[in-house]
Structure of 3-phosphoshikimate 1-carboxyvinyltransferase:
Amino acid sequence: MDRLTLQPLARADGEVTIPGSKSLSNRILLLAALAEGTTDIVNLLDSDDIARMLEALTALGVPYTLSSDKTQCTVTGLGQAFRTADPMALFLGNAGTAMRPLTAALCLGEGDYRLEGIARMYERPIGDLVDALRQLGADIEYLGQEGFPPLRIKSTGLRGGRVAIKGNISSQFLTALLMSAPLADNDLTIVVDGELVSKPYIDITLDVMAKFGVTVENRDYQEFVIRGQQTYRSPGRIMVEGDASSASYFLAAGAIAGGTVRVHGIGTASVQGDVKFAEVLAQMGAKVTYSDYWIEVTKGELNGVDVDLNHIPDAAMTIATTALFAKGPTAIRNVYNWRVKETDRLHAMATELRKLGAEVEEGNDYIVIQPLQTLKAANIETYDDHRIAMCFSLAAFGNAPITILDPGCTAKTFPTYFATFRSITTDASVD
Ligand SMILES: O=C(O)C1=C[C@@H](OP(=O)(O)O)[C@@H](O)[C@H](O)C1
Ligand SMILES: C=C(OP(=O)(O)O)C(=O)O
């Protein structure tokens, strides 16, 4: 898509219903495919990351039907692990929520697979997951650089027993192991070796597994015990809640330039850790109101904060651009793994914030942003990172036009982002 220039914006007001959660959509699709029974998925996200998982399921012989708007999906579960006769390549784009869980799931059952993706996926680590799977007997080969996709997997089944996994780079490795564990040959105890980042995503995993009939004994996120040789069972109908990371941009718009913005689809009943983003806005001075199914934010006098956002790494990027409008500096700490996501997000955020005129300190695992009286007009490079495109749209609440160079990259998780953003904002020129 061509570049998009946002003229200076004055206000944000209104209501938004947020599309389905990426994290939930891809977990539910995978477990629905493995489960016994038919699953009706309601409010599935329609985006690139979900399309990659659906394409993989098609190749793996999982029958499903999709509504014309791609938000309702009925999956006929296999009731067992994937079994395919011919070698195949699966292209998983840059979807971590497809690459990591499928790496574990394809060790089960029968088959010979190549797991491929875009160039950036080949720079995103997967070694800690492969190491854990190999302890359980998996046959996985690196086809490129050691520790990174592309991978070749020959299914061998997973043994069970006791396995250690590192969680200091990505929680998705533990998620992947957890979701495959019930189909292992024996009971499995997973021991988390060292720190576990992005911990609330593990709650999403355990919640979805429970909906498909599998309970996990969680010993304070340090050990997980799962019975082997189980079958996932379809819950019948399952509703995907709105995406809490996608909600962050609208909530921040309310905090910076409300009016009031209400986001439907997430709330106190949500399982996603990123709903805690609203607490950071409240800490900065915005007025936040909750119900079970919506969150509303009204503008307040925003102050800078010094916060550890390891638990909400995706929504944390939205705090970085919100910080431009606060009084006093904002420090976002303990986000080292920003460096191994869609791009090196610590470096990219620092570079793009500086283009607006902000004074920024980039640390190894933190960023400090000084707010600005006046923002400079800038062309924002997106680095093929949907969240950079989305969080920098907030810069248009300064007094200068902001050009997003590749707005189409929001398709990874939110193809209609800019149309939705426009629906709640008013240009300064017409205010
Ligand atoms: O499990 C998930 O659905 C996700 C976990 C997080 O990744 P890390 O655990 O790598 O931080 C998050 O950034 C990603 O967008 C989605
Ligand atoms: C890190 C992200 O994606 P992925 O699921 O590919 O890890 C993200 O959406 O910000």
Notes: Residues 4-19+242-430 form a domain with the UDP-n-acetylglucosamine1-carboxyvinyl-transferase; Chain fold (CATH 3.65.10.10). The chain has twelve helices and 25 strands. The two ends are 28 Å apart (CA to CA). The longest strand covers residues 188-196.
